[in-house]
Specification:
Low-confidence stretches: none
Number of strands: 18
CATH topology of the largest domain: Quinone Oxidoreductase, Chain A, domain 1
Mean pLDDT: 97
Number of helices: 11
CATH architecture of the largest domain: Alpha-Beta Complex
Radius of gyration: 20 Å
CATH superfamily of the largest domain: Medium-chain alcohol dehydrogenases, catalytic domain
Distance between the termini: 19 Å
Largest sheet: 7 strands, mixed
Shape: globular
């Protein structure tokens, strides 16, 4: 089969590779689309070589159809539309036994620690595969994985209808969080410094603010009787975002830490004490978040098509990474891995 393999920092090679052997409890998926996420971009830049075994296909935001099933797999049929929740947990550590398998102490992330989906076929454990409605377009189904991240983040926030919500960072995940928060009943403001992303947010009906031009804290307090936001999602990963999140939050508010910070950032802990703030981490997703994301995509409840910036063929994965590296305005970029599947 053909696969686009990570070779080293900045280099992808489109190559013939063997199809992985099919285990008794595995599925082989004919990949339709695979999205490029921020983690893939970090891998491309060479930041995660300790976890990736080059040459290796990466990628995990997948949609496709079942091509072959292992002998112990009975609940999937050939040509059925599917997606993959790419978290291979051990099942034996204390965290798994407590039910939090998505943050397993020995977690293997498919497409990072194992071969990924930037290939014509992807062989994965059947227990990690989710059924998709037959009416769901596979192009949109490739957004289930990042949407599941947003569903998990909003669920962790315990957001209630009519809560004032600030999403700090209007990239792909931030925009998906904003969409999920609004669908849950939140009154959402997006904070973003990229003007094209601000324009996209406004075109989707959001209140969107550039904090370098508008006093965001004053605006939010003016809209909430002086109190502040009920929920703040920190998605920017910036020092400025970490600094302002405690200013934005009302007393007893919830701050959800979504971003991955490359280094520790200063946080005003006095405001946590003074306002009795609550901060929760939100990492990847659980089974229920995936199922909710599938329903949201299938029901066309969210304007997801607007978030797709471009689609590249598998042979041009190098070009797609180069495009993303040079295009700070881009949102979701998809890779079409088998051109005959739509």
């Amino acid at each position: 089969m053909k696969a686009a393999q990570y070779i080293k920092a900045g280099e992808i090679a489109y190559q013939d590779v063997p199809v992985s052997p099919l285990g008794d409890d595995e599925l082989r998926i004919k990949v339709a689309y695979c999205g490029i996420c921020g983690t893939d971009l970090h891998i491309f830049k060479g930041h995660m070589d300790a976890r990736v075994r080059a040459p290796q296909a990466i990628g995990h935001e997948v949609s496709g159809t079942v091509a072959e099933v292992g002998k112990n797999v009975s609940d999937f049929r050939i040509n059925e539309k599917v997606t993959v929740r790419p978290l291979d947990n051990c099942g034996t550590c204390n965290t798994c036994r407590a039910g939090f398998t998505h943050i397993c102490e020995k977690l293997r992330f498919l497409g990072i620690e194992t071969a990924g989906a930037f290939a014509q076929y992807w062989t994965v454990p059947a227990r990690l595969v989710h059924h998709l409605p037959e009416t769901l377009p596979l192009k949109l189904a490739a957004l289930v994985e990042p949407l599941a991240v947003a569903c998990h983040d909003v669920r962790r926030s315990e957001l209630k209808p009519d809560d004032k919500v600030v999403v700090s960072g209007g990239g792909p995940i931030g925009m998906l969080i904003a969409l999920c928060a609004r669908a849950t009943g939140g009154r959402v403001t997006i904070s973003e410094i990229n003007e094209k992303r601000l324009a996209l947010a406004r075109s989707l009906g959001f209140d969107a603010v550039n904090p370098q031009q508008t006093d965001l804290v004053a605006k939010v307090r003016a809209e909430t009787g002086g109190s502040g936001a009920d929920v703040v999602f920190e998605v920017s990963g910036s020092e400025a975002g970490a600094k302002v999140m405690t200013e934005l939050a009302r007393p007893r508010a919830t701050i959800v830490m979504v971003a991955i910070f490359a280094k520790p950032a200063p946080v005003d802990l006095h405001k946590f004490f003074w306002k009795e703030l609550r901060m929760v981490g939100a990492r990847v997703y659980e089974y229920e978040d995936y199922e909710k994301a599938i329903r949201l995509v299938a029901d066309k409840a969210l304007p997801l098509e607007s978030l797709i910036s471009s689609v590249f063929p598998l042979a041009q994965l190098q070009d797609a990474f180069d495009y993303l590296t040079k295009s700070p305005d881009a949102m979701k970029v998809l890779i079409q891995c088998n051109e005959e599947i739509q």
